[in-house]
Design a protein that fits this description.
Layout: E1 2-7, H1 17-28, E2 34-41, E3 62-66, H2 72-79, H3 101-113, H4 123-137, E4 141-146, H5 150-162, E5 165-170, H6 187-203, E6 206-209, H7 212-218, E7 226-228, E8 249-254, H8 264-275, E9 284-289, H9 294-303, E10 310-313, H10 318-327, E11 330-334, H11 348-355, E12 358-362, H12 368-375, E13 379-382, H13 387-402, H14 413-416, H15 421-436
Helix pairs in contact: 1-15, 4-5
Length: 441
């Protein structure tokens, strides 16, 4: 069996969406002749902890962890955060509103001096360990997956040192990622970061991205080097189109929520629907599940203070999150608001699809997410300004449930199955195989 050295910052016990992609690749790669060898960080700064994910790691997978020098402890001390393992720095720290001057200064330093990201202190440790791992494990391919982009700088050094072919995976854009676009970054820092991005894409042997439109945000000159491998789902498809026999019509938002994808007008709409008695409060439950930014959560609670049966549940394990999705009647999906961000496809979209439940999405109607929802006949997508249409859709979905009218939609499993984690991993393995071909040597 061939071996692939996978360089990733996020790995169990890390929770959150960032770990799912690489963990599922590692889980299924042995089925296609590739043994995963993981190089990751020890005691990383993670958005959440989910120890249940350890059970997903295949026995054949060897994991190496290294130390890392990060500014997180200094950041916490300077900004007044408690320096505890379970008191992590918010992923959305760069887009938070109403922050203190200390947080503003810390963000400025992070953006202008820690290039490409705050994880650069991992590089010397990872490169040193990576060389020893290569000598011991003799991998056939190096695979790095970002964010953070630091992983690609590590992979670049190891690939150059060893001569092993290297595949760079981008779950998000790099210099054009949404949270960098409105930040105060000096021209020199911007240029350095852009040059690093160009160098990585130029020097890797192949690149992967989660969407077609995100490729446009990464390069205009090396597009032929890219293969699109989306995120996906790992659970069984619910082929039933019958309405769930629930005691309440459950509207669910699950996952993290930052200002860049928060739509306060939608929350106001919900409040007005109850205030105007267009929805029966006794038969509806509204659920928010996940790590929602403090200011946003306070705003939601204030707007919905007169809405009964509203539940706020903090981060749950991935397994529990899937349970919430399957039990809901209407699944909410909020897209990033940034311009030219049509490539944004939330990872949970695919797990939403697999439930067979109706999706209500707010965001760009012409983006890659809208295309996937439409091709799977999985729900409706609206621009944020289409308040009247959103209202009609919510009332229509509630009436279908209340009157026990089955949805007239079918799940096309042939289309949907291409998003299963195993099939997506097969696509990755084929790319690895092609780089091992004599024609590519």
């Amino acid at each position: 069996m061939k071996k692939v050295l996978i360089i990733t910052y996020y790995w169990p016990p890390s929770g959150g969406p960032g770990v799912q992609r690489v963990l599922k690749f590692a889980k299924y790669l042995p089925d296609f002749g590739w043994e995963p060898v993981i190089l990751t960080v020890e005691n990383g700064e993670y958005p959440a902890i989910d120890k249940t994910l350890f059970s997903e790691i295949p026995e054949i997978c060897t994991v190496y962890k290294t130390k890392s020098a990060t500014p997180s402890a200094l950041y916490k001390k300077f900004t007044g955060m408690k320096n505890k393992k379970d008191d992590s720095i918010p992923v959305s720290t760069l887009v938070q509103k109403n922050i203190t001057w200390k947080q503003k200064l810390s963000n400025f330093i992070r953006l202008n001096f820690f290039i490409p990201d705050a994880k650069i202190g991992w590089i010397p440790y990872a490169v040193k360990a990576g060389k020893k791992i290569i000598e011991k494990e003799q991998p056939d391919i190096i695979f790095s997956t970002s964010p953070p982009p630091t992983v690609h700088l590590i992979a670049a050094k190891l690939a150059k040192w060893s001569g092993i072919k290297w595949v760079a995976d981008f779950r998000d854009p790099w210099t054009k990622i949404h949270y960098l676009q409105q930040q105060r970054i000096n021209p020199v820092s911007k240029k350095i970061n852009k040059n690093l991005e160009k160098k990585v894409i130029k020097n890797c042997n192949a690149a992967i991205c989660v969407s077609n439109n995100f490729i446009n945000l990464l390069t205009q000159t090396d597009k032929m080097k890219f293969t699109v491998i989306t995120n996906g789902f790992d659970n069984e498809i619910n082929r039933s189109t019958a309405l769930k026999n629930t005691s309440k019509f459950t509207i669910l938002y699950i996952g993290g929520l930052a200002w860049t994808r928060y739509y306060p007008d939608f929350i106001l709409l919900i409040a007005k629907l109850f205030e105007n008695r267009k929805l029966n409060p006794g038969f509806i439950e509204f659920q928010f599940v996940g790590s929602i930014e403090k200011g946003i959560l306070e705003d939601i609670k204030e707007k919905l203070k007169h809405v009964p049966n509203t539940k706020y549940i903090n981060y749950v394990t991935h397994e529990k999150a899937l349970e919430f999705m399957h039990k809901a009647n209407l699944l909410l999906l909020f897209l990033e608001k940034g311009e030219n961000y049509e490539g944004h496809i939330p990872g949970k979209l695919f797990e939403y699809l697999s439930t067979g439940n109706q999706i209500l999405c707010i965001g760009n109607k012409k983006g890659d997410t809208a295309k996937i929802i439409n091709e799977n006949n999985a729900g409706k997508i609206f621009e944020s300004a289409e308040i009247d249409k959103i209202e009609e859709e919510i009332i229509s979905q509630f009436n279908h449930w209340n009157n026990k009218i089955p949805q007239e939609r079918e799940i096309n499993t042939e289309i949907l199955n291409k998003y299963t984690r195993k099939r997506l991993t097969q696509k990755l393995a084929k790319l690895f195989d092609s780089l091992q071909s004599p024609l590519n040597n």
